[in-house]
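Re: [ENG-882] Designed sequences occasionally contain unexpected residues at chain ends

Forwarding the minimal case from QA. Structure tokens:
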């Protein structure tokens, strides 16, 4: 039988900060990223006191605490001043633009999504590091405001259809060339060197 969960200690809201829409870009994933960026500037104990609640960051402290947490409040203020310029990481881009990982990779590769550099981080609890592209928030905002993901999907669909049409045309030309060769009595390259090919071909198995 699982142990009963320890009841949470009563807390009170000491301070809260509204997040600028220009910084969040309407993304809950981006809000979480901003929260994590702010928490990275706090002590380990203080990180547990800061939470995201809708479009606000909220500092909750123990009900009976008399500490003003001035250092925490000052750190949050300082980080949030530059929140609108924080690079947008891949999972945030996908949430903001409502795109898939495959689309992000394809549009980054062909230059429609423009990288603002790379970031390398160490995975929690592991020795392995990963490197990924980050994006300028203003570029992502322009892509979003311009409705470019929908336009790019249409372009990709048209390109895919054209590629299929060209592939079908090449396949049809190849079949026509083989039929013409067969009607002229020709054989595939090297076929004349095989014993019994004339009999095999006369059966029409390859036609």
């Amino acid at each position: 039988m699982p142990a009963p969960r320890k009841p949470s200690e009563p807390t009170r809201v000491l301070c809260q900060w509204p997040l600028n829409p220009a910084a969040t870009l309407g993304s809950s994933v981006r809000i979480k990223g901003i929260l994590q960026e702010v928490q990275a500037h706090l002590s380990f104990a203080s990180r547990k006191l800061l939470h995201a609640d809708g479009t606000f960051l909220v500092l909750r402290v123990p009900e009976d605490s008399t500490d003003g947490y001035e250092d925490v409040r000052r750190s949050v203020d300082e980080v949030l001043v530059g929140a609108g310029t924080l690079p947008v990481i891949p999972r945030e881009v996908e949430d903001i633009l409502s795109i898939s990982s495959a689309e992000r990779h394809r549009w980054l590769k062909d230059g429609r999504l423009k990288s603002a550099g790379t970031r390398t981080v160490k995975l929690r609890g592991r020795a392995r590091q990963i490197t990924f592209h980050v994006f300028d928030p203003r570029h992502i905002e322009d892509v979003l405001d311009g409705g470019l993901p929908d336009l790019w999907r249409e372009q990709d669909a048209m390109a895919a259809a054209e590629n299929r049409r060209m592939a079908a045309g090449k396949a049809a030309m190849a079949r026509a060339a083989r039929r013409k060769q067969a009607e002229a009595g020709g054989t595939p390259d090297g076929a004349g060197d095989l014993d019994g090919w004339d009999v095999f071909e006369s059966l029409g198995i390859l036609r």
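QA comment: On inspection the terminal residues look reasonable. Strands lie at 11-18, 50-53, 56-62, 118-122, 129-133. Proposing we downgrade this to a documentation issue.
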